[in-house]
Amino acid sequence: MLFNYKKGYGEMHYFQDDLYRLWQIVKKKIKKDKHYLQNIKKKYDNNFQRYAALFITLDKTDLKKISDKQLLYFLKKVMFAQTDSVGIGHVIEAIGQHVEGDLKVILRKNYGADKVNEYFIALSVPSKLSFVAQEENSLYKIARLPKSKQALALKKHWHKYFWLQNNYRGPVDMTIDDFAKRLKEASYTSGNSLLAKKKFISKIKLSSEAKKLADTIDFTTVWQDERKIFTLMAITYTGFVYKELIRRLKINPEALLYFSIVDLKKIKDIKQIKKMEPELKLRAKGSWFLWERGREWLAVGRDYERLVKLVEHKSDGFDHKQINGSIANSGIAIGRAIICKNISQIHKVKQGDILVSSMTRPEFMPAIKKAAAIVTDEGGITCHAAIVARELGIPAVIGTKVATKVLKDGMMVEVRANHGLVKILEK
Hints:
- The two termini are 33 Å apart.
- An eight-stranded mixed beta sheet has the order 5-12-11-7-8-9-10-6. Strands 2-1-3-4 form a four-stranded antiparallel beta sheet.
- It is globular.
- Helices cover 55% and strands 14% of the residues.
- By secondary structure, the protein is of the alpha+beta class.
């Protein structure tokens, strides 16, 4: 994996050869053991339960009263909770990127090329609503309660979803009032599409081979959503510990964001983090982190700038009149392209715009609801953008690799999601 960080903006990239190789391994494992993925997820869930106990302990602990040694202990626990929140769940990326191609081959063979995209979209509808939709449905129901019962219901809702607006830079402190402000605008997502999927499978007499792949898509899509919950919760508790570190060390909060797991393994005392502050500030200006075969490689300063130029040079060879990607949800939309590389930019999106991002996250939802379509650089059929696009019924083209580099704010574009195409109409 390759991470690019600069002034609070981060990009994550997987090596495509690695994802393809992993998908080939997973296919063989599934063929030998039909419960292979379920067994992996059980291990993942066991990890989550272990960290859930840690989170309960942190809720009951006054971090200001514990020793430096105890604080370091909690720091290590919460940072490893973040890494394990993905952990073995990285297998989802390999499946999401490549299962689509395998399923489409079967659909083309059995039903003809003209039916491939239509059938694929119908089969990729998850069997469970995303946590974003579940949260909104819950809020919608609270809004329809008598006023006398809303306060208690909102308190329970906050306790369940306090992590909802977190992002990879850190936690966002949500209050009960934040949820209360959304009561009037909350909408309801039904499960009708799930029923339609079952009828569709029965109608077209899906082959057993195709059904196995469709089931794999469904399983990993639901797992991806649950994985996101674990990640966002881990970010909350990492934030608790970071807040106390900042208080004790008087360290720049921005610099602390660039403290890594590899750094964590080396330190024996939290005061060593303060000594790293100049290095952390340098990383904040721009840094590449590369994880390969269990090792971390870091590029900052001039090395970082050289890598940026290399990546930008590679993007110059693309056709700048149209962009191709995978179909996440069908449909056609025309609108202004608005590039959102981080949460601070989503305010730019107005009703009917085309949201263009490296990848979407739950905190992008206010912008997504206004967008006429979604276009992303990264992601497969199980990604967040694909899930919410299907739930909201808006066109989406994902995995373009270059959308945020080729498209500019204000460009008029046409998203032909039925064909995985984004066409530039006016620059």
